[in-house]
Structure formats: C-alpha cells, structure tokens
Amino acid sequence: MRQRPDFGIVVLMIVIAIVLAMGVFLLALVIADRPGTATTEALPEGPPPNTVYVANEPVTLFVDPNQRPFIVQPTAVPEVVEQPVPEPAAAAPESAAADVTTLGGGGQPATDRIIFIGYQVQPGDTLFRIQTNHVTSIALMARFGISASNLVVGNILNLPVGDPNACAPWRPYVVLRGDTAFGISQASGISLQELQARNGLDANYSIFESQVICIP
Q1: pLDDT, tens digit, 9 for 90 and up, residues 164-195
Q2: 189: which of 21, 63, 97, 199 lies 20 to 30 Å off by Cα?
Q3: Interhelix angle 181-188/192-199, nearest 10 degrees
Q4: What is the value of pTM for the model shown?
C-alpha cells in the first residue's frame, strides 16, 4: 500500500513558496518605484563626431554609406601680418643759394668767366703783345686753337678773354706760368683766404695756368 505524504510538510512547502513569491513581487515593486539618479552635470565639450587631428589641426571626416569617405579640412584663416609703416623720407632741403666760394664775382661759376671777342690782327702783333693788351694769355689762346700762325694782318680772331661781368665789382685775371695764389693775393692787397673764398679754391689754394680768377 502506497504511503501518503505528510500533510504538514506539504502545507509548509506551500507556505514557503507563497512567501518567496510575495518577496520577489515586493522586491520588484521597490525596484520599479525607485527614482533614477538624474545628472545635470554638463558633459565636457569634446571634438565633434568623426573628427581627427592631422598635424595638430582638426579635420572632420564625413562618411557617406554610398560613397567612399572623404576628409574636409577647415578653411585656413590667412594670418594677418602687420607691415611696418615706413616713415616718410625727410624732405630734401631746398637748394641753398650758391656759395660765394664756388662763384666768381657777379655770381658766375668759375668755368663761365671766359668770353670771346672779335679781334682784328694788327701789323706787328705777336701773341705776347695781344696778351699784354687784353685780359688773356698765350696759354689761354692756345687752349682755343690760336697760335702765331693765325697772326695774319687783317685776320679776325675769336679771342678768349676774362669776362668782367663775371667778376664785378672785382676784375678778371688770367693766371700766368709761375703765378701762385699767395703771390696774387699779396699783389692784389687781399688775404689768401679772401682770394680762396672769392674764387672757390681748394684747401691747397691750387690755381693753374690760363685759369681766370677774380681779383680786386
């Protein structure tokens, strides 16, 4: 004859099963009713999606599922380099009035102290006689092609002489061989420095034969 299970054990097992079921049910309710923890903290800003860095420069990678991926580089912003503004060049001073040291009397440059006059050769004329009677010299005449062969009576010479207007109120003088600036200044009654200033002589008081200078 089959033995029947103990009724008390069966009841105990049923009670345990009911308790476990209720415990699971209550635990599920507690979990469902528990509020979630919302975070309002802003996520740190990061690079946009599909961004990579090439040589420390961000580039965005766009992917089209139907095409090959391509890279779009950010538009380079040209660097503005400030160019130094050049200072305006100082205006050149206006030409000062010509210094008397570079001019003869009357404000004429030393190279313009010669003029030409028409001279008709006279009987007995020699180069020395013409030099004595006019503000010229044998060397000055030679500079302009006049020689003894030109001294034909009646011939008209284009005679170079010192220009009196270039030396006014002084007078022109043609330097002869052997002349010195010191000797001319002494004979003219002026200082060597005054002769130098009036005629634009250099620091060595240089003069040359056939040069036209101005003296008192």
Answers
A1: 999 999 999 999 999 999 999 999 999 999 99
A2: 97
A3: 110
A4: 0.50
